[in-house]
Amino acid sequence: MSERPSPLLRAEGLVKTHHGEGAPAHAVRGVDLSLSHGEFVAVTGPSGAGKSTLLHLLGGLQRPDAGSIWLDGERTDSYSEARWAVERRKRIGIVFQFFNLVSDLSVADNVELPALLAGRPPKQARAEREALLAELGLTGKERSMPGELSGGEQQRVALARALVNHPPLLLADEPAGSLDSKGTREVMRLLSRFHQRGQSIVLVTHDARLASAADRVISFFDGRIVDDAELDAAPPRRAGTSGVSGVLELKD
Ligand SMILES: Nc1ncnc2c1ncn2[C@@H]1O[C@H](COP(=O)(O)OP(=O)(O)OP(=O)(O)O)[C@@H](O)[C@H]1O
């Protein structure tokens, strides 16, 4: 009997409460989730629903109060911060709404840094960086500093940085949230392109139109999954089109 492959990511019983100034915020109240290899899932829901907290838990940036996460079948409960950092470098690229680039490093250095930290030889890190920046339309910007780029360009650099180690999973937290509609289209087109090549993606967005690029949409409300639906309207993969028609029609 052949065993089914482990999901790329599995979460069971995740709970997270933030204790800030005021009353505790019950951001994630019991979430079970499984993500297959190659799947593109959008997590959508209103502001404050707990979407970002969920993404942070899945990437090991925050610890759950209860529940567990498995990466490729491996339970992460006992991971130290350092171990999570190593695993992220190998397995999980993350992009944020405000890019989080290192402002005093050049574009080239921002992208190469995770490859060097992962132990890649400098020559190889450089080759990866060159290939990705070319693919993302950023050739010629290598020596620029992040502050000299448009928001859309900075987000493309952040994508290159997230993908330089070829992680199987990309977590994207409102990656178009601070961009104009042209930048939004660019980012969504790139996410769809990487997905078509087999990249697994979890995209957090409050925008239902952007969520339509995914092949599965999870609706999050008040810390819980209230709906989890396959988008069967999505055209077949590798057909030269993706499920982004609604996104690509966004007007400037
Ligand atoms: N570090 C924190 N400290 C205290 N409360 C927090 C913290 N992070 C989030 N929260 C609270 O947890 C709840 C969920 O926040 P979260 O950012 O996860 O929601 P969201 O769905 O991503 O919202 P948005 O779409 O506005 O980004 C909110 O009530 C928020 O105020």
Automatic annotation (TrEMBL):
Residue ranges constituting the ABC transporter domain according to the UniProt record: 9-247
GO molecular function: ATP binding
Domain of life: Bacteria
Annotated keywords: ATP-binding, Nucleotide-binding, Transport
SMART domains in UniProt: AAA (SM00382)
Record-stated family: Belongs to the ABC transporter superfamily.
Protein name: ABC transporter ATP-binding protein
Organism of origin: Streptomyces cynarae
